[in-house]
Write the structure tokens for this entry.
Amino acid sequence: MITPALPVPRHGHERRDEDGRAVSADESATAWALAARAGDPAAVESFVRALHRDVVRFVAHLSADPQAAEDLAQDTFLRALGSLHRFEGRSSARTWLLSIARRAVIDSLRYAAVRPRSTGCADWETAVEHAQPLGLPGFDDGVALLELLAVLPDERREAFVLTQMMGLPYAEAALVSGCPVGTVRSRVARARATLVALLAEAEVGTTTEVTVGRVATTAA
């Protein structure tokens, strides 16, 4: 039986500074970004290592193409390192970096839309169909999280991934997406309703139709 549970946001582990004060992962990454901006090569390495996994997960879900995730992550970090001189720490380094990742994905999709296809898949939905989640909680018995997320409209998928899987506060997710906090909350609520309906469908054998603003479920 499939348990209709959704992913629990992942929160950064804390470390201690020299005075014993708890320092969050976001604070550490931001400090490394600022040190990297000042020319510290070791800080550059720490900054990339600290946020690489978050960037890969985000671009994989946002682009719905796990095979392109590493290339998109590399593009993101190249853009970020080239723009470090403009980073002032007004937001966390993770929020700043995910904003850059979002633009990298959008640029990639735009480029893919105008170039001849070189993949053997007919479209991105086909690629998602063959993708499998990587150790994400709440989706067992062979249910592919990426396949479920692919059903969502792009903006709702982005909001859900940022807040429910990446663990960003709604205010920071709003900065990444460039929209009001209330809009992010609305998108997450609608995304969650759709995913819950899809998980329920897998249990009882119904068919879910995703429409703008609502989820309709009918018997199979």
